[in-house]
Structure formats: C-alpha cells, structure tokens
Amino acid sequence: MFFAAMNVAIEYVNDLPIVIVNGRLDTVTAPAFDAHLGPFLATPRPRILLDLSQVGYISSAGLRSVLQLVKHTAAKGGRLGLFGAQPAIMEVIEISGFPTLVDLYPDREAALAASKVESKGA
Amino acid sequence: MVGMQLNPATIRLQPALDDLVRLVDAVESFAAEHGLRPADAHALTLAAEELFANTVKHSQPPAGYVEFTLGLADGVVTAVYIDDGAPFDPTARAAPDTTLPAELRPIGGLGIYFIQRTMQSFAYERLDGRNVLRFTRKLA
C-alpha cells in the first residue's frame, strides 16, 4: 500500500552525504526517518544534501524531521541543501519559511555543483 | 452542518495513529474521484492529517471518535472535521514566526499554520460537546 511506504537511503558523492527519501514524510513515517538517521547524525556535518524528488507528500511532522537536518548542519556553521521538491511539496516548504534556512536546488546536478563550489570556497 | 446526513464522503475514525491511513485514503480517493490537481489534493490531505494528529496527540481526555466529511460544490471543497475531545480551538493559535534562524526554530507549531495558509476559510465551533472545524479550498 502506498501510504505506509517510506524508504530512506544515504549515498555519498566523494565525502558529501545525500539523504534520499522515497515515499511519504508524515506523522506515521517521520519517526522511522528519524530513527534511520540517528546513527548518521551522530557525526557532526556542516553539509548534507536532501533529495526530495521521490517524495509525494510532506506534513508538519515530515518538516520537523527536515528541520533536524537543518539544525544539524547549522550547528557546524553550514546549511542543508535540498533538491528536487515537487510543486506541492515546495508550497509547504515556502509556507514554513524554510527557504531562508536551506539552500534550494532544482535537481541533484545543481545541488552537487553548488556544493562543490562551496566546499572549495570554505 | 453537524447534523448533516452521513454520505459516502464521511468517514468515522478512531483517534489513533493507525487510523491515519484510512483518513488519508479517504481524502486521496475523493481527490481522484473529482480529478483534483496534486496541489489541491496535497493541501487537503495535509489539513486532514494535521487536525487528526492534533486530536490523537493532544486531546486530554482523549477523544472517543473523529468524523471527517468532504464535499465539492461550485469549485470549492468544503471539509468538516469533528472530534468529541476536550474543547480546543486551533484557529485561535498565533501564527509561528517563520523568519527565525535555524537554531531558534521551534520544532512544532506549523501544522495549523499550513491550514490557515492553504485554505480560504478555517473556522471553529464548539457544538454539542464536540469540536467542529470547517475549512474550504477553492480549486484552481
């Protein structure tokens, strides 16, 4: 059934982690997302990319999980890079005021390119 | 209206997270049946989930049931969300500060704000021992 499905994977491009979510990020699935990322977040990181291209739905519970990544990177003086959000997801992100907290990119290529530039400049 | 006849778009739920699946299914089915665009379907599902999550997590004493009805007329979706929990008016909540920097962002409080921003109306009434929330979305 579509509803319960939420998968999260972490991929590394060079040393840059990309958190890839597939499915719904809501009241039911957000705790699983948080649990999965627990060990990953034990290591402080200034830069994480979040791939939302396969997320069809997000609620405030899902955004709360995303905010944890925002705070995690901010704690090291960095920012979360978020890409691939579909229009309905983007509307929620904009209402939340997240665009001032994260770097938004249309797709993975743009996010990776920008992250490369930033790490050189750092 | 609270006394409205039950119709196929009304669903009765137990206020437990397990039943969120049924609520979402009901909204998604309604959206598919009426050919709603993804943005409209998303906003309606979101509103339903946020209210349901509030009832499940915060109603003290716990609510005994939740009832949710969707209707469509003249390009406007009207939703009625009812629970018999403790009196609670979410429409009276102050909007969160969405301009705060990351480290100061509270971890909650966005759900009701989404409804206020994505619906054309959002009203509360305490009626016959029940919380009755009505919201409408004008379809694009």
Mind explaining what this structure looks like?
The complex is a heterodimer of chains A (122) and B (140). Chain A has 122 residues and is an alpha/beta fold. Chain A has one domain: Transcription Regulator spoIIAA (2-Layer Sandwich), CATH 3.30.750.24. Helices cover 38% and strands 31% of the residues of chain A. Chain A has a five-stranded mixed beta sheet with strand order 1-2-3-4-5, sandwiched between helices. In chain A, helix 1 packs parallel to helix 2 (60-74). Chain A is globular, with a radius of gyration of 13 Å. The longest helix of chain B is centred in the middle third of the chain and has 21 residues, at 38-58. The two termini of chain B are 25 Å apart. By secondary structure, chain B is α+β, with helices and mostly antiparallel strands. The radius of gyration of chain B is 15 Å and the shape is globular. In chain B, helix 1 (20-33) packs antiparallel against helix 2 (38-58). Chain B has a single domain (10-138), classed as Histidine kinase-like ATPase, C-terminal domain (Heat Shock Protein 90), CATH 3.30.565.10. Chain B has a five-stranded antiparallel beta sheet with strand order 1-2-3-5-4. The chains are: A alpha/beta (122), B alpha+beta (140). The A-B interface holds A 1, 3-4, 26-28, 57, 59-61, 63-64, 67-68, 70-71, 74-75, 86-89, 91-92, 95-97, 100-101 and B 17, 20-21, 24-25, 38-39, 41-43, 45-46, 49-50, 52-53, 98-103, 105, 107-108, 110-111, 113-114, 117-118. Chain A: InterPro entries: Anti-sigma_ant (IPR003658), STAS_dom (IPR002645), STAS_dom_sf (IPR036513).
